[in-house]
Automatic annotation (TrEMBL):
This is 3-methyladenine DNA glycosylase. The lineage of its organism: Bacteria, Bacillati, Actinomycetota, Actinomycetes, Actinomycetales. It comes from Actinomyces naeslundii. SUPFAM superfamilies: DNA-glycosylase. It holds the Pfam family Adenine_glyco. It comes from the Bacteria. Signal peptide: none annotated. InterPro entries: Adenine_glyco, DNA-3mA_glycosylase, DNA_glycosylase.
Length: 205
């Protein structure tokens, strides 16, 4: 059943309102209800989300979510130290793995990003390493969208984060991808007004 005053919200059989994209597919619904927009502040967690957002570029998030267990297995649980040590044999292994997205540029970028993550940690120039850097771009306020069309696809903060990550050697970290990352890990809250998830991250009042 659709929310009368907002066609972008759907009320489920549990009486809870969700955006249409999260209302029907059980996997997306579970992800929306339990993960999306909740704070992720640890290095491995942020590295995993950054990696998956890069793989998602040009694809649907549902595709990536269905493949996430295989991605975790293929990339050693997204442990940056393990992934940073991947060599040519690992690249060949990943390219032959039909359970993940077999894109050479994205695979190589993930390995390069793991190495960049370690450099951030080892130099100590960025407080909190990768997670600290990403969270340092939290804006002073968050959007409060009523409709899906109100949700921006990038922001000054995501553009600045993109530039800073690229300066540190990260790849596939454009402003739109970084904005999606910021939404996914709770740096901003773009749940629609009326959604049962709005404000549940605890980051924003």
């Amino acid at each position: 059943m659709t929310e009368p005053d907002n066609p972008d919200l759907v009320v489920g059989d549990d009486g809870l309102a969700r955006p249409a994209w999260a209302a029907t597919d059980p996997l997306l619904r579970e992800y929306y209800d339990t993960e999306w927009g909740m704070p992720v502040r640890d290095e491995r967690g942020v590295f995993e989300r950054l990696s998956l957002e890069a793989f998602q570029s040009g694809l649907s998030w549902a595709t990536i979510l269905r493949k996430r267990p295989a991605f975790r297995d293929a990339f050693s649980g997204f442990d940056p130290e393990m992934v940073a040590g991947f060599g040519d044999e690992d690249v060949a292994r990943l390219l032959s793995n039909a359970a993940i997205v077999r894109n050479r540029a994205k695979i190589l970028a993930t390995i390069a990003n793991a190495r960049a993550t370690l450099r951030l940690r080892e130099t100590g120039n960025v407080a909190g390493g990768l997670a600290g850097l990403v969270w340092s771009y939290r804006p002073e306020s968050t959007p409060r969208p009523h409709r899906l069309a109100d949700i921006p696809t990038q922001s000054p903060q995501s553009a600045a984060l993109s530039r800073e990550l690229k300066r540190h050697g990260f790849r596939f970290v454009g402003p739109t991808t970084m904005h999606a990352l910021m939404e996914a890990i709770g740096i901003i809250d773009t749940h629609l007004v009326g959604s049962h998830r709005l404000g549940t991250s605890g980051v924003w009042g």
